Amino acid sequence: MKLKKFILVIFIIANQILISQVKVVLDSVYSPSLNSFKHFHIVLPENYFKTEERFIAIYLLHGYGGSHQDWVNKTSLVKYLKDYNFIIITPEADNGWYTNSPTLKNKNYEDYIIKDLIPYVEKKYRVISTRHGRIIAGLSMGGYGAIKFALKYPNMFLLAGSFSGAFNWEQILERGQGQIIQSLKDAFGEAKTQHWHKNNVFSLVDSVAIGNLPYLYISVGKDDNIIGLLEANRNLVEKLQKKNINYEYHELPGSHTWSFWDMEIKNFLRRVSEINSLTW
């Protein structure tokens, strides 16, 4: 009898510890856009288990060659989240450049995020399911995806963040080599086509209505060694400034590394917590 009571006490304590901490959950969603199940991590704040309130959702996109595990395993994201009441979703998106392929069947990575993943999360978890509850950000390829989504779907997102955003994929196509070239061709097709321009952030800035755009947070390392990446970030910011689009830009010490992205996700979470001070 004493043993049973002891086990019960241990069980209760273990559950209390779990509930008092940020919880990382592995989930999956069937995506008709990809005709497959895709994994994602969802990180739930401590208060998720203490209240019935709904929380801001931040969708964090991985880079080329990455996965849904990167943000959780390669940064101190979970530790930083102990100070905030945000829900974080880190989807698995292969090397699809968050874009619908014009040539390959069942490779619609834009629709996967917008039409499959986000509705699934909003149905299953207590997130704020309006524009004011959705934020999207990412690193490198994911930074490109986040800014593209903000410009293409301004009514869906309040804020978008890019860390070392790969807005220079045209230059990578021209000068790069290896598997990344094929991934770019699969995602964007032939140069200068309508599909190409519809997914080019520079073209999107030119065509977008200034109106109710998401606030843009853009950062890049001063020592980033990816072909043309730093220059592309500077060029994008120049376009945003000329178009009078609200943004903030941080050119910081660092390169295309996890130490830089760890620093930036910490900075970004702090900035999101100050969201009431942002100007639109």
From TrEMBL:
InterPro entries on file: AB_hydrolase_fold (IPR029058), Esterase-like (IPR000801), Mycobacterial_A85_antigen (IPR050583)
Keyword annotations from UniProtKB, A to Z: Hydrolase
A single MF term (Gene Ontology): hydrolase activity
Alphabetized Gene3D superfamilies for the sequence: alpha/beta hydrolase (3.40.50.1820)
Descriptive protein name: S-formylglutathione hydrolase FrmB
Organism: Candidatus Chryseopegocella kryptomonas
